[in-house]
Design goal:
Blueprint: H1 3-28, E1 36-52, E2 56-61, E3 68-69, E4 74-78, H2 81-106, H3 110-132, H4 136-169, H5 174-203, H6 207-229, H7 233-259, E5 261-263, E6 268-272, E7 280-281, E8 285-302, E9 314-319, E10 327-334, E11 339-340, E12 354-362, E13 374-380
Helix pairs in contact: 2-7, 3-6, 4-5
Length: 386
């Protein structure tokens, strides 16, 4: 063989081997684009911890682990008898506070005003009567009555003396003398009484009686003014504040009653749920763990390649659990701030290089993928800008 032929074989051998290698590569990796980047990450999902802010004894349970739940679907009920009783009491307190406010806003009734005015008028009449007592006519009448009584007394005194003399002479009986004595004594008492009455009238009302009547008049006038003016603005504000406080207490209890029914906040799958009827649920403690069905992979792309990715572009995802399957994804988010590669993520770049987080939303309509699976994401790279 000539030297030229040996040279041709030496050149053709490596070329043929390279061609075979390229052919094999195309056969085994048909799913990887010629200009692509493959990075690894873990499948993630939103985890929701549901429970009650109030707590209590579990009354009923409606779901089991693995069930698919809809937004607003009831997961469990807590016993609510005690809270229902407190709500009834709170409703009554609100009604009482509302009635008190309505009464103040309505003001005094006409009957109450009329009664207060009548009381004040009567107190005024009493005061004037005490202050101006006695009237001149009363004094004149008392003097006339006293003069008449004194005249009667003088007559009865004379009659008694006459009968006494006749009795000593034996001209009248003892009974006649006794009758004359009784009339005399009666007239004496009457004169003494009328004389005292005249003295009291001439003296007039005592100062303490006038002051007492005046005090009652002032009190009655003050009550009349309060009734006519109605409640003070401060009382109305206080009543409004009492009503708001009662309503707030009722709303708190109603909110607590809502917490006695634990519901799913969104479309999800029950991942962890080991609560049973009769269990005591603590406040603010998770009773179930829900996993949202939407899954994604968060991967980290080197800074040198991030400019060749775009939002909305498709991605291919492979997981170890299904080595023969390729799942579709879409780039949903590209972080705007760089960071250092996490230790559990492998890329062809050095770990010290800066990377950008990329969120790839997965198509999991078949329900084969699970949160926590390791995944390899292949992203097609756009032409680098020049």
């Amino acid at each position: 063989m000539s030297p030229r032929a040996r040279l041709a074989i030496l050149v053709a051998g490596p070329v043929a081997i390279g061609a075979v290698a390229l052919a094999l590569t195309g056969f085994w990796w048909p799913w990887r684009p010629a200009d692509a980047l493959t990075v690894s990450g873990n499948i993630e999902a939103h985890e929701i911890l549901v429970g009650s802010k109030v707590g209590g004894r579990v009354a009923k349970v409606y779901v089991r682990e693995g069930d698919r739940v809809k937004p607003g679907q009831v997961l469990l009920d807590l016993e609510r008898d005690e809270l229902e009783a407190r709500k009834t009491e709170a409703v009554a307190a609100v009604g009482q506070a509302q009635a008190a406010l309505d009464q103040l806003l309505a003001g005094s009734r006409p009957e109450e005003i009329a009664r207060a005015r009548g009381t004040a008028d009567a107190a005024r009449e009493t005061y004037l009567g005490v202050k101006t007592w006695p009237r001149p006519e009363e004094v004149a009448q008392a003097r006339a009555d006293l003069a008449a009584a004194e005249a009667d007394q003088a007559y009865s005194e004379a009659q008694f003396r006459r009968f006494d003399g006749l009795f000593n002479e034996g001209a009248v009986a003892a009974a006649d003398l006794d009758n004359a004595r009784s009339r005399r004594d009666g007239d004496r008492s009457k004169v003494a009484s009328l004389r005292e009455k005249l003295r009291v009238l001439e003296t007039g009302s005592r100062p303490e009686d006038i002051r007492a009547a005046e005090g009652k008049l002032k009190e009655a006038d003050a009550s009349r003014q309060l009734v006519e003016k109605g409640p003070r603005e401060e009382e109305i504000r206080q009543a409004r504040a009492n009503l708001k406080a009662a309503e707030a207490r009722l709303r708190v209890i109603e909110t607590q009653l809502d917490e006695m029914v634990v519901k799913s906040p969104t479309d999800a799958v029950v991942e962890v749920f080991d609560t049973r009827p009769g269990d005591l649920a603590s406040p603010n403690k998770a009773l179930a763990t829900l996993i949202e069905p939407d899954l994604w992979v968060r991967v980290y792309v080197p800074e040198s390649q991030i400019g060749r990715l775009r939002l909305g572009q498709e991605a291919t995802v492979r997981v170890d659990s299904f080595p023969g399957r390729r799942f579709q994804g879409v780039v949903e988010q590209i972080n705007r701030q760089a960071e250092f590669t996490p230790r559990n993520v492998q890329t062809p770049e050095e770990r010290v290089n800066q990377v950008f987080g990329v969120k790839v939303r997965l198509d999991n309509r078949e329900g084969l993928l699970r949160a926590g699976m390791a995944a390899d994401v292949t992203l097609g790279l756009l032409s680098a800008a020049r």
